[in-house]
Amino acid sequence: MRTKSGGYRYPRYFLYAGLFLFLFLLIVGCSKTAPPSPSSTETTVPQESTQTESKQPQDQGPFLKKGEPIYILMYHHFAPRGYWPKQEVAVYVDDFSEQMDYLQQEGYHVVALRQVWDHYKNGTPLPQKPVVITLDDGYESSYQLAYPVLKKHNYPFTIFPVVNWLQFEKSNKPYAPDKSDYLSWPQMDEMVASGLCDVQSHTFDSHDKVNGISVLITKIKKANGQLETTEEANSRVKEDLRQAKTFIEQRYGWDVYALAYPYGEYDEKVMQTMDELGYSMGLCMSKIKHKNNLKAIARIPVAQSDGLNGFIQRLKSKQAQ
Q1: Residue 100 burial by CB count (10 A; 0-12/13-18/19+): exposed, middle or buried?
Q2: Over the stretch 25-55, which tens digit does the pLDDT of each residue have?
Q3: Nearby residues of 157 by Cβ (< 8 Å), 6 or more positions away
Q4: Interatomic CA distance for residues 173 and 171, integer angstroms
Q5: What pTM was computed for the model?
Q6: Are strands 213-214 and 209-210 parallel, antiparallel or unpaired?
Q7: Which of 24, 251, 294, 306 is paired with 313 by a 20 to 30 Å CA distance?
Q8: Where are the residues of the annotated region Disordered (predicted)?
Q9: CA separation (Å) from 136 to 84, 143, 153, 158, 222?
């Protein structure tokens, strides 16, 4: 349509049509170059893969399957070769080093005891061939000899000290491998600060026997020479376990959930007392009286005469159970 000035004026519908075409082409062009949305990405990744990546610990391979063993090793004292001969609880440190090397070479995964507790309580996955390292009593050799080996491998471990046996001040005396001295709490603090060391209970001061029976499960004589009543024995044991738990929790700020029974001996009353105090895991030696019970977990004792070959045989024996 010509205007009075000689130009042309186009009908409005041409303008609207042109604007619509421009917007259409713009939208189509953007949709071709835009990155895929999160929902479209999820559909291209198998669901199993995303679950595995979120749960599986790094460098730990497949998960433990039902029925496969969990290896909980039990050590006590350590010594340089030549010291403490024929004392089975004193493992030679060079043998210990070879045993730790073997675990790494053969694809075992050393995990914290708390991970095993979480596995039993909550079903949290563990890697295949899981190993837990526990050290009982709290000998100074744990710090002087075993700790450097464990630190070299970055292996977590749990110490079960008899709380009242440890020294509150760090000794200035040089380490004497011919002695069976106990740790100081400053030495324990140093190991805890590394992030590798967990501390749980081996009683406060009840690692003893009367007539060949652990004082944790039998009556003892009082100061007046008379035998405790059942009520008095139960009260003594409960107070001892409470003191140990309270001391460690206040020093380190974590929950004390595990008790290693002295001599591996326990009974129903001790298990009941543990429930009352908040202990949920009990560790024995190689023999247990209850199956499928978190308060009766068998461990693999490692002895001086084992060396490397005996150590390997103990692991294989656990596999065959």
Answers
A1: buried
A2: 554 454 444 333 333 323 222 222 222 333 3
A3: 133, 134, 135, 146, 150, 196, 197, 198
A4: 5
A5: 0.80
A6: antiparallel
A7: 294
A8: 35-63
A9: 17, 12, 20, 9, 28
